[in-house]
Amino acid sequence: MRISYPVAPGDFSNAGKVSSTIKSLLKQLNISAKDVKRMVVAIYEAEVNMVAHSYGGQIVCTLEADKAIVEAIDTGPGIPDLDLAMTEGWSTATPEVREMGFGAGMGLPNIKKHTDDLAIETGKDRPTHINMLFRLEGATDGS
Amino acid sequence: MTLRTVVEIVNGKVMCGEEQLDREVKMGFASDLMSDVLTLLADDILLITGLSNNQAIRTAEMSDIQQILFVRNKVPTKTMIDLAKAQGITVIVTAYSMFKSSGLLFANGLEPIY
């Protein structure tokens, strides 16, 4: 199953809508509560990042029996220094983003913490493609 | 403690989710930084925050947090209440500060995460 959801740039009031939709879907698929939580937390961080920093893009979920791949693909402007962006506490967030409760430089490190594998392709003036892999423990706990 | 007790301790007002006031909550976490809340592995905690916007509700939703206490009379908007209702999240508002609310709840047995 492969589903794509568009994410609009700068639409702060709706940030989280895509993650919410994906969470409902994952719960319906009987994925364990533990896996659903770590997936949606990572997806939500990626969605907030996309709203806050990008020109917009999409979140694409590919769901298989034992794993899920979630891609956050935007159209730019890219991350000039990925090592810096992966450093906890480093942020380029605007005051508006900070008012939302984000922008503390914890997004990408937190995504890494919640994924089994994380690959990021980016660069200055380039699109950013975040590839998150989640190995699923199976539908043991649908509650 | 039950959410009903939480409401009593902080002299709070329940904005939605009254039907869940008998629910037990063991731990609390106070923060205005949603990124910090999203790092927590524990769920089913009481989120104590002064950040009154959609992202507070969304963060609770993603973190499987079923109850939020807004401090300093940060009354949630209708959109926030609608979001919370849709997720079955109980929303409580208190006039007390984050410091006072946390102190009283801690003193009455609500446990910290860290």
Instruction: Give the spatial strand order of the biggest sheet of chain A.
Output: 1-2-3-5-4
Topology order of chain B in helix (H) and strand (E) letters: HEEHEHEHEHE
| CATH class term of chain A | Alpha Beta
Strand arrangement in the largest pleated sheet of chain B: 1-5-4-3-2-6
In total, the number of strands of chain B is 6
Quote the average pLDDT of chain B: 96
N- to C-terminal distance of chain A: 22 Å
State the total count of DSSP E strands of chain A: 5
Q: What is the domain tally of chain A?
A: 1
Oligomer: heterodimer
- The secondary structure category of chain A is alpha+beta
Coarse shape of chain A: globular
CATH 2nd-level architecture of chain B: 3-Layer(aba) Sandwich
Q: How many helices of chain A does DSSP assign?
A: 5
Beta-strand level of the residues of chain B, as a percent range?
Answer: 15-25%
- How far apart are the first and last residues' alpha carbons of chain B, in Å? 18 Å
Helix content of chain B: 25-40%
- DSSP strand content of chain A: 15-25%
Question: How many structurally independent domains of chain B?
Answer: 1
> For the record, what is the CATH homologous superfamily label of chain B?
HprK N-terminal domain-like
